[in-house]
Every structure is written in C-alpha cells, then in structure tokens.
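Module 6 notes. Inverse folding takes a fixed backbone as the condition and produces residue identities as the prediction. Think of it as a translation problem where the source language is geometry and the target language is the twenty amino acids. Below is one complete input and output pair. Work through it position by position during the lab.
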C-alpha cells in the first residue's frame, strides 16, 4: 500500500496558549503529520508568541506571513495547500483541538476508503464553557452518525448537502488542484463553495463523526448578527452554488428543535434568549443577502471582516 502523507494547514491570528495545545495534540496523533504549514496573519503577533512561550519550531513546521489586508479565507488557505506536496492536506483553525489521538486517522479514512470522495470533515464538539443553546446547535449540525453526501442528497438535505467546515477538513490534494482549489476572494464559506463544486463534478463529501475536534463559541446576539451577515454575503456572491436552495428552512427547524430541547431539559426560561439570538442571526442573514443595496458605512458596521471590503 502506498504511504499516505498528511500536511496540516493552519491559518493563525494572534496565537496563544490554545494554539500551542493544538500543535501538541497534533504531534500525538496516530497518523503522523508530515509537515505543518502555518499561514500567519501579522508577523508581529507570531514573533511575540515565540518570544513569550520560548516555543522551538520543529523542522517540519513552516510559517508564512500575510497582513490583515491581504488575508482571505479562500486565497490564504489555497496558498498553504499549494505549498504542500502531500497526498492529503488537512485544513484546521488555530482554536480547534483534537479530542483524541485518532482525529487525523479517522478523518483521512473517509478519503482513503472512498475513491470518489474529494473532502472529509470532522465533528465539532462543544468546549467545557459552552452554553446550553450553542451546545445543542453543535449536536444539531454535527450528529453522531457519519455520512457520505453527494449531489443526489439535495432533495433530502437541501443546503446541508454542501455543508463542510475548514475548522477540520481533509482534502485529496490531487483532486483539490484538479478542481481549481478554493475561490480566491471570499468573505466566508470557501469550504462549502468547494464542496458544491466537487459535487458538480461527481465527487462526494464525507462527514466523519469519528474525527472529533473541540471547537465552539459563545457568541452574543450582535456577534451572531455579524457572522450571519458575512455568511449571507458569501451566498449572495455565489449564486451558482446557493441560488434556488433556501437556507432559512433549516434554521427554523433548528430553532424549533432547540426550543423543544430546552423545555424537555427544564431550561424553558432560556427560550427568550434563543429567540433573541435566532432573531439576530436571521436579521444578519437578510441584510447580508441584500448587501448590494446597503450604503457602504452600513455594510462596514454589519460585517465581521472589515478588511475584506477594502480589497
């Protein structure tokens, strides 16, 4: 059997203790990492982290610096993958921690055992400080069962057919290059856009429930508004992927199931918070879909990524 080589590409911004823990856990994986390719935003933050931690860079770690103005969710990751020569490239974020030593082994199994699979993504588990609403959202979006998704699943899954997350996702590098890689200018959703394009070419996307990372956020309502605004902008900019596929229905289903879960758990007093958070998400999404009609100052207030709009 041909040896599998795996490179890990990690965009980094203001590295801290959690990033150091990520590298430590990746070093302990049953599937060895051939090379770490770090795409760091702003060299000053990287130099400060090295100085404060005394971290000694291993020989298989390479770091490349970009500025905040030039960082792009798609182009920066693409640049990292194109610096690799491994058979499989794993994209991760700097705040996601492997839940165990089998993360990479389980993640790449979805690629190596299924010839027609272009990308496999992992399951995101809530961190210890995660609130109950976000905890249920994680379970809703990342179920316990693995699944191979293809274009034939659109009628059943809708927008979730294309769901994929570069918080933890593995790509066959040869297929990635064949399909042209990530879109080079995107505010968000470079992973879903790639997944949709792969499916158009007959490839599958594998959700690997056994590949688990700890990753969650306790976003406020306003933060959820900004995030969903950017999410909707990415959808508006790529009608070739998202037109004709409604996202709202899936969101409504999640809100209803979360409310039922809160009642069942004796946490019905959190339903007003759920309604508020969900309303912020929906308003951000509606405005993002219509961002071209908004004055530029309004767009800059709504977005999470102000640097994107200066490109």
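Target side of the pair, the amino acids:
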């Amino acid at each position: 059997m041909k040896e599998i080589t795996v490179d890990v590409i990690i965009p980094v911004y203001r590295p801290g203790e959690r990033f150091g823990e990520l590298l430590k856990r990746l070093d302990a994986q049953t599937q060895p990492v051939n090379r770490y390719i770090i795409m760091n935003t702003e060299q000053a933050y990287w130099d400060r982290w090295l100085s404060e931690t005394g971290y000694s860079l291993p020989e298989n770690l390479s770091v490349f610096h970009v500025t905040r103005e030039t960082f792009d969710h798609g182009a920066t990751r693409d640049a990292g993958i194109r610096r690799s020569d491994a058979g499989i490239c794993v994209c991760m974020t700097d705040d996601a921690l492997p839940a165990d030593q089998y993360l990479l082994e389980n993640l790449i199994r979805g690629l190596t055992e299924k010839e027609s699979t272009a990308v496999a993504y992992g399951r995101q588990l809530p961190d210890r400080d995660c609130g109950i609403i976000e905890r249920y959202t994680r379970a809703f979006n990342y179920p316990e069962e693995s699944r191979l998704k293809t274009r034939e699943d659109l009628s059943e899954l809708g927008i979730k057919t294309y769901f994929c997350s570069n918080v933890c996702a593995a790509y066959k590098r040869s297929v990635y290059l064949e399909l042209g890689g990530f879109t080079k200018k995107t505010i968000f959703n470079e992973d879903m856009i790639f997944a949709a394009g792969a499916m158009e070419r007959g490839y599958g996307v594998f959700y690997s429930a056994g590949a688990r990372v700890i990753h969650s956020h306790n976003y406020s309502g306003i933060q959820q508004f900004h995030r969903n605004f950017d999410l909707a902008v990415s959808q508006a900019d790529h009608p070739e992927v998202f037109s004709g596929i409604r996202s709202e229905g899936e969101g409504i289903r999640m809100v209803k199931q979360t409310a039922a879960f809160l009642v069942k758990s004796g946490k019905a007093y959190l339903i007003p918070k759920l309604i508020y958070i969900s309303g912020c998400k929906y308003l951000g999404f509606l405005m993002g879909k219509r961002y071209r009609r908004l004055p530029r100052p309004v767009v800059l207030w709504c977005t999470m990524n102000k640097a994107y709009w200066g490109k």
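Reference fact for the lab report: Residues 154 and 161 are 6 Å apart (CA to CA).
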